[in-house]
Amino acid sequence: MEPSLVVIGLNHRTAPVAVRERFWISETGRYEALLQLSRAEGVEEVIVLATCNRTEFLLWANDAALAANSVQRLLSAQYGLKLCEWKHFYRLLDDAALTHIFNVAASLDSMVLGEPQIVSQAKAAWQQAQKVGSTGRFLDAVLQKAMTVSKRVRNETAIGNSTVSIPFAAVELARQVLGSLEGKEVVLVGAGKMSELSARYLMNSGASSVQVINRTLEHAVELAAKLDGRAVAFDDRWPHLLKADIIISSTSCPHFILSREEAESIVKGRRSRPLVLVDIALPRDVDPSVREVPGVFLYDIDDLEEVVQHNAGEREAAAVEARKIVAAEADGFRRRLLAERVVPTIIALRSRLDEICRQELESFKRESGPFSPDQDEMLTAVTSRITQRIAGSLARELKELPEKVEQEHMTEAVQKLFHLDTPKMAIVGTN
Question: Collapsing DSSP states into helix, strand and coil, what is residue 405?
Fold first, then answer.
């Protein structure tokens, strides 16, 4: 059975946030998953990509069915996957998997077309797999090519222009509830990049002050300095949440940091002032039942998706051109892979033809010789040219076959006809 490229995962298109957060894998969890799957049945190489919008397993599998079963067992044992939830996961093979990986890296499969974060996230996933030792020549080649495709898409199309980001969407939702943002007080819970971008959008829209709350106070101090705001220790957060008009929460905490009861306590001291609470974390920071608290307007990342459709026409036009680039690059990479697959067979064939010609030439010399040195040299040259012509012709036929199945059948026929040992498949180059 020939090895296959496989992608198994779910994303914002196939699963709501409540499902995505159940199967979101932390950095430590990804490390453990890489170790486990690299030793699992059917798996040769593996990379795990987990963001707020997707969890994906990129696999180079010696048996695609066994590899899929290994992923399913891991998700069942570690994350409680039920059989009925398997419908949220896509399972892509070979050409479809390759095109998907290229689309993801080029931000064509993102909630926000053209968003730049996915490139760094994919690189980080790849680097983690390299450190663990769970990726090798094949997935390294695929990811390296995906990075090249992403760069080409951004250089040759307008996919990254006029991008409506998740932080922008958060500001638009706040504006819908509060009207003008002039003088509004903002609290950031979490000191990551998303928090910083959200705060900058809010300040550009008129917000008067920003306070940064984080479990690691040093990180809060660092971000607050950038924003000319104030850092607050996590344990001292309640008075500041009470005064806030807008709370942006984006932590890496694995459980809720704001319950319904806590939200109700905050609202009691606000004198009917509305509170906009934007939860852009995964897993979510805020209990979804907080939506039921009067005066609190809670939005999560699925709510933001509607807002990011703003200016979708311009971005979709750029995406059409970007997808053409991805399709061409995927087709070219696939053809090079198909060509590389048959290289061991071609080498073995050439060796076999040389052996046949050498045996026949020696038999001919014994029966019809002796020959002069010049005649010997001429006969050797003729047989060598015959070998080259036959091997070259078969090599072109094998390399130029457009479909994997057809190539496999032809390669198998050549191996049987010439009694070749089944050679190990070569790995596509990274150029």
Answer: helix
